[in-house]
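Quick one from the shared queue. A colleague (R.T.) flagged Zinc ribbon domain-containing protein as missing a structural entry in our internal table.

Convert sequence to structure tokens.
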Amino acid sequence: MVGLGLLPLIVYFLVREPLTLDNHMADKLNNDVLKLERTYYAFLMDEQDRKCPVCGHEVKSRYRFCPACGNELRTVCPACGELMETNWKSCPHCGHKIEQPEAKGELV
């Protein structure tokens, strides 16, 4: 019974093409190309135009201020200096907690 399970395995190893160093290098290059393509497409998606929430002017995702109305689109983290969205409560780059300014005139 055990011999029947080993027989197909032995036949497989006899008839398959051996893996060569060239095959291994080709697989590695294909994986590297896929990683570069993913990075490139992520870059393209990040560069797409958005609209300013105040005036509707098209702005790039890397802009800090709207060039049409001056609205602050993104803020700078006080800890690491990276750009972040104005409504975030912590920096995604360093984890620094952002203190929200207290609203004046609120009823408690």
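The chain has a mean pLDDT of 83.
Helices lie at 2-15, 21-46.
Added to the table.
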